[in-house]
Specification:
four-stranded mixed β-sheet; Immunoglobulin-like; 12 strands; 434 Repressor (Amino-terminal Domain); 5 helices; alpha+beta; 28% strand; 209 residues
Length: 209
């Protein structure tokens, strides 16, 4: 544990939040002298204080313990580079559009990688009013279902949560240009399907009901 790096990280975060050493000390019920020692690298917070310290500073515990506050690469703004993360503990779904560290339930998450051999879903695209109605052949039962769908284009991401016993279909607004449909199976992982709805030969006009 590098006390100098941790101290510098605490000082930087404290200043970002506009807090004095006294104000931070009061929130943690320690003395301002104690905070000063931390920031000078002359000691580290007691383990019992780390959770409260991170809450005060809006910090990620792992990063703070490493003294690592280096900014990531700037977000390129290209939604086509979207990355998806699913927490294995709580099932939380997270989305990132650039290089970043993502964690949930105290665990570092890695982005999902599309399967090399996607399941044969027999995707069907139909036009319905101002939407495309996309359906597939896949179980939607507890323990084996698609839990989210994401339609990604260069400037937008449409993220849809799916649940067991739900219809095996999603609706997405009609838009120009190609897109990529991601489907995540709770058993077989992420699948990636290129879609070109405006020119897709399988598109059929569904009558309004």
């Amino acid at each position: 544990m590098d006390n100098i790096r941790i101290g510098a990280a605490i000082r930087g975060l404290r200043q970002e939040h506009g807090l004095t050493q006294r104000q931070l000390a009061d929130r943690l019920h320690v003395s301002a002298k104690t905070v000063s020692k931390w920031e000078c690298g002359q000691g580290c917070p007691d383990p019992a204080l780390w959770e409260a310290l991170c809450a005060c500073l809006g910090a990620d515990l792992r990063k703070l313990l490493q003294g690592d506050l280096e900014p990531g690469r700037p977000d390129p703004g290209n939604m086509a580079k979207a990355r998806f993360y699913v927490c294995p503990m709580c099932g939380n779904l997270l989305l990132g559009t650039g290089s970043c560290g993502v964690s949930c339930c105290g665990r570092s998450l890695t982005p999902l990688s599309p399967a090399a051999d996607p399941e044969p879903l027999n995707l069907r695209v139909e036009e319905m009013d101002l939407d495309y109605y996309i359906s597939w052949d896949h179980p939607m039962e507890k323990g084996h279902f698609l839990d989210f769908a994401a339609y990604v284009q260069d400037d937008r991401v449409l993220l849809i949560r799916l649940y067991p016993e739900q219809e095996s279909a999603v609706r997405i607004p009609i838009s120009r240009g190609d897109g990529v449909l991601y489907l995540h199976c709770t058993r077989h992982g992420l699948q990636r399907h290129r879609l070109s709805p405006p020119r897709a030969p399988s598109v059929t006009k569904r009558p309004r009901t």
